[in-house]
């Protein structure tokens, strides 16, 4: 794996998976020993995730970058707010349908994986922006029963097939929204490695920095293991808490 120049985290993850498999096989008397025992694993570089998160001022600039007088601008702002306030994955966002936006004590279901659904409370700001987008986009063409199955966020134009009633491509969230407004606001130059996952990292980091219970954040993000959630916990490395400033 080192010869293939895999990342340190990838090597550790693969060795851990193999070790767990052989531990299980040993317990079942299927093998005599664990061949991974004694294999030197590369040191973990950090307990912090590598995905960069945005600061509060950068978030405001990003949300205010899209035009407020065009359908694309209003849609893009609603998309950015949904990602930033709820920490959902871009694939989850693209799969949302109108009927997923429910009045269930303020909850909205998002499908993290096929066959699984979790309910996420909607932030008032995001709800307002989504409402503005739906009013301008005129989803469903007045046919309520049809519109409920439509994609919540959909293209505003399609030069190839002209079909607009479809889900957005996840790749377009980065190409046509985040990268576009990141370039216009200068955030691309300020944040090294800015990607759509940075918006999820921003939501998680902000929640933990504001003393949200990590178990609730884990459930909110749809993480199977709390160790993944801990990658976003940067409270122990805040510069203002350094002895430098004491």
Tags for this entry?
246 residues; hpI Integrase, Chain A; 2 domains; mainly alpha; single chain
Q: Could you explain how this protein is built, in words?
A:
The chain has 246 residues and is mostly helical. The protein folds into two domains: 1-45, no CATH class; 56-236, Intergrase catalytic core (hpI Integrase, Chain A). It has eleven helices and two strands, in the order ααααββααααααα. The chain has helices at residues 8-27, 56-65, 71-86, 90-95, 124-137, 144-147, 170-185, 187-190, 197-209, 214-221, 226-230; strands at residues 107-113, 116-121. A two-stranded antiparallel ribbon has the order 1-2. Helix 3 crosses helix 9 (197-209). The radius of gyration is 22 Å and the shape is globular.
Provide the CATH top-level class of the largest domain. Answer: Mainly Alpha
Indicate the radius of gyration in whole angstroms: 22 Å
The biggest beta sheet, please? 2 strands, antiparallel
User: What gross morphology would you assign?
Assistant: globular
β-strand percent reads: 5-15%
Which class best fits the helix and strand makeup? Answer: mainly alpha
Kindly state the number of beta strands: 2
Number of domains: 2
**Named CATH topology of the largest domain:** hpI Integrase, Chain A
């Amino acid at each position: 794996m080192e010869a293939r120049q895999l990342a340190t985290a990838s090597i550790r993850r693969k060795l851990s998976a193999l070790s767990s498999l052989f531990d299980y096989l040993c317990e079942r008397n299927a093998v005599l020993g664990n061949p991974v025992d004694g294999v030197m694993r590369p040191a973990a570089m950090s307990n912090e995730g590598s995905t960069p998160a945005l600061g509060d001022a950068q978030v405001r600039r990003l949300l205010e970058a899209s035009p407020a007088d065009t359908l694309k601008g209003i849609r893009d702002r609603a998309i950015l707010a949904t990602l930033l306030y709820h920490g959902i994955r871009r694939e989850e966002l693209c799969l949302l349908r109108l009927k997923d936006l429910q009045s269930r004590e303020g909850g909205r279901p998002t499908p993290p994986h096929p066959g699984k659904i979790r309910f996420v409370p909607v932030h008032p700001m995001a709800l307002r922006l989504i409402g503005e987008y739906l009013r301008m986009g005129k989803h469903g063409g007045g046919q309520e029963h049809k519109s409920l199955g439509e994609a919540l966020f959909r293209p505003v134009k399609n030069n190839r097939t002209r079909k607009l009633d479809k889900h957005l491509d996840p790749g377009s969230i980065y190409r046509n929204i985040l990268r576009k407004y990141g370039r216009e606001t200068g955030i691309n130059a300020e944040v090294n490695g800015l990607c759509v996952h940075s918006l999820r990292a921003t939501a998680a980091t902000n929640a933990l920095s504001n003393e949200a219970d990590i178990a609730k954040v884990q459930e909110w993000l749809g993480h199977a293991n709390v160790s993944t959630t801990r990658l976003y916990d940067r409270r122990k490395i805040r510069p203002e808490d350094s002895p430098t400033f004491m």
